[in-house]
Design a protein that fits this description.
homotetramer, 287 residues, Alpha-Beta Plaits, Rossmann fold, 2 domains, 4-stranded antiparallel beta sheet, 8 helices
Chain lengths: 287, 287, 287, 287
């Protein structure tokens, strides 16, 4: 695990000297760059960069870092953010309904430190998975949803996210659609798993749709939740082969193995600040 | 290569004794079953089977085989066909426009005997690939297509397919849409390659569509051509990973490697009589 | 889940009429074949088959089935066994050391009924995973192993397997090597997971070996345990890509996702009687 | 295609300021960095980098570039080289025996500009593929090899490589082993394809070895040729699934699809200066 690292994510129009000037900024303050990954999109004429540096001998206080960097960013007309790794653990809330596989997989990866975060809160519209929360000493809030109570229940959900100071909400096969206002309030702070290879089989019952169409491969897609359902920036996708021998239940079983891996990877990429969103697409700076 | 084998493809309502009765039919006539693959769809309550047997000591003339089998098939209310392998080579025609990769790949596999057939005819709407036809001693017919001449040119294409006694037409990145009547005339005898993971990105420029959507995986799909474009029974699909670093041209390059493998496999499966079509889906009896 | 099915696994020299005669045997007794998969190895001139049939209207008692079939099997000089599905649940014992991922994955698949068996017993040489056994109400027996006590501890292990009437032992990253006599006593009833793509990186620390060699892909292999370590019949393998960026710990993390999937699949194939062993190789009749 | 780009490949002990100082060096001379990819190996405490910059407005002559950079490299105790893209096309020689698939694939990718190089020379120990060379207007030199004439024939091969000013030799299923002195003379300038997933199945007949062992996956590996056969730095690997149904010939067919893709990718990576060799391993800076 990287301890006491700073990470800069930056997007700006492509210009001469961005790498040189920014790496010099860090070097001047005695930051040791451990990872620099950049990409120029020649069609968009945009420059994208992720820089990670050690704060071990960093010569300015962290509280002054953003202010110190702002003038340079302004000069490059950049969208940017700086995140600190290792200073404090990010907190995630996991939303579930009745399926346990994504939840269990996330918890296991967090406990083995493959994903570095805390899970103080699980929110569900059903009580079924309470025992898992209890085994892991996590608060479990049941908020059943129907057409009438949805606005009111979402208010409670938002209040819980604020109370627990949640940095990221993970929809781990949560079978409810969040309202536009909820999604806007936590823009790019909600990750969903859709059990198809988007944009194929948008909407409900994608495995049923896949079986009906007779495809030979099924998939899963993790993406940021946006107001347009299943249209958010895609983070990760994976697939597996199927054949005519597979029943709908076989598809569900095979799909579960994809869903948990695809969702967990997205959560990790997000928490390691490896995702830069540009337009409605993501740039993933892989480890 | 299997020489002098017969292959029965059969679909019927699931009943007691189909395997026993049919394998007995073959055994009685001294056919040695080298491959039997069957599948029961429990939801549709349908039975599907492919049986391949050696004709080495077969006790009845091939010309009598279909008549001999017909009563049994009728009893089971079966859709069925019997094909012979090794008796005569099937003939395929390849339709192309300007891209050579699928054509070259098919020709190479045919020459190495990975695919067992003859290619007497290549049809194109452009003259660009004439040199390849010439290097391989294949007739190359250029039939340019525009809105006005399409019906008339298709008539010529159909006449060519008949003249050359073509068993299967392969659309190897042929950039034209065949008319409904053409497709009907050669029902399930035309295989197309679509350069996306169907049903995602139906229609034109699927790589452009994929880039615009920001997917992390692209694919290719081979399918039987039907009147509904890109809706025919899917035979084979494959995918490859892409990232934000890939330009549109990179997608095209990566996609070409998929297209040629996915199309060639479909052609081979068809020619080995491994594909049974039921409804708008395929059952593929893999080797 | 199939209830009340019989499964015949059979290997014999390739002869005329095996399918016909055996399917007739089943048909005569009113068994409805739901799955028949066979394979002829033309080099070995051997015939291999798996037949699964419904016992719903089967006309002879199960207790007479083996005796009834024996003469036919003898005629074909066959190695064979008949197993019943759904009559009683098979019992497995899971051997572990300190790693939880394979154990957790197996338990989760068993609880979701993806794998159909009972787990009455977990055996470990360390106490670390006792809490998992306890959460799932499974007996947890700690038998620490060292050079001196190994024969004696193995006797206790064998006694436990007998006491619990265990049908299959699964070594879920159990870090000890079983003695030759142990393995012989449970021949082809012990499945192991090796964390490499066998036969590459046999022995200890395969991830370290992989990193040192600079391979671009790592793998995992499930196989039957035999006296020759890592030389048993291979059941299933899978791989994942790595790069120079991956530390040894990254390899371990990526490998865990392979190990659990590759081991669970092997266990499922075994319990569904889909594995026929011939020589030191397996024939897997895939679902 | 990138035109007129310079590429620096550099390895040095990890120190503060390498990125900053080097990117500043380029920036000062008005080079626009289009790609910078670096990696720190925390165990080896080594820093590795690939920087690619446009020479459009570069302020110093290319002939002075290496001299100008040398002092900085010396300060960092770096191994380094600078290559130019687009200034002149690299020249490759392809060594073949009787198999055409890797040769055809390379030629096709070069003609479609997926790989940017010239092929003035094909060397073979058999005359079989002469027609392909002739169709593509490439010199084809037949140098049959046996125990006695090997040293003398290798001298001729080396002379040919020098005469044609060859930058890279590609062993495209060339069935001969090059002598140690040959390999040393063209150190890291010879790429080989081995038809197995190294280090599994080193040596001859790897598909036979794979079939005998009963593996469920086969692979192919491209690597730099070194004196130790099949032990050179690995560049790229890929795999495909097989089953008990696959005959040895099926393995050969499936393997061919791997071999050509794995070899072509290695050649492209090399020619784009994306490969840094450290110890006996490669660091691949992916596009």
């Amino acid at each position: 695990m990287e301890l006491n690292h700073a990470i800069l994510l930056l997007a700006c129009p492509d210009t001469l000297g961005v790498v040189a000037r920014i790496s010099h900024f860090i070097f001047e303050r005695r930051g040791n760059i451990v990872n620099l990954d950049q990409h120029v999109d020649p069609e968009e004429k945009m420059f994208f960069m992720r820089v990670e540096w050690s704060l071990e001998n960093f010569s300015i206080p962290l509280s002054d870092l953003e202010e110190a960097f702002a003038p340079l960013a302004k000069e490059f007309k950049a969208d940017w953010k700086i995140e600190l790794l290792g200073v404090k653990k990010p907190k995630i809330a996991i939303f579930v309904s009745k399926y346990s596989h994504c939840l269990l997989d996330l918890l296991w990866r967090i406990e083995t430190k493959e994903i570095n975060c805390e899970v103080p809160l699980i929110i569900s519209n059903h009580p079924d998975l309470a025992h898992i929360a209890s085994q892991h000493n996590i608060a479990f809030e049941v908020l059943p949803i129907n057409k009438e109570n949805k606005p009111e229940q979402e208010k409670k959900q938002i209040a819980l996210l604020q109370e627990y100071k949640i940095d990221l909400a993970v929809l781990a096969r949560y079978m409810q659609i969040l309202s536009e206002s909820f999604v806007e309030e936590f823009k790019y702070k909600i990750i969903n798993i859709h059990h198809s290879f988007l944009p194929a089989f948008i909407g409900s019952n994608p495995y049923k749709q896949a079986k009906d169409r007779g495809v030979k491969i099924i998939g899963a897609t993790s993406h940021y939740a946006t107001a347009d359902l299943d249209e958010g920036p895609i983070i990760h996708q994976d697939i597996t082969r199927i054949s005519h021998r597979d029943s709908l239940n076989d598809l569900v079983c095979k799909g579960r193995d994809l869903e948990r891996i695809v969702l967990s990877k997205a959560v990790r990429m997000h928490l390691e600040n490896r995702i830069l969103i540009y337009g409605h697409k993501t740039i993933i700076f892989e480890a």
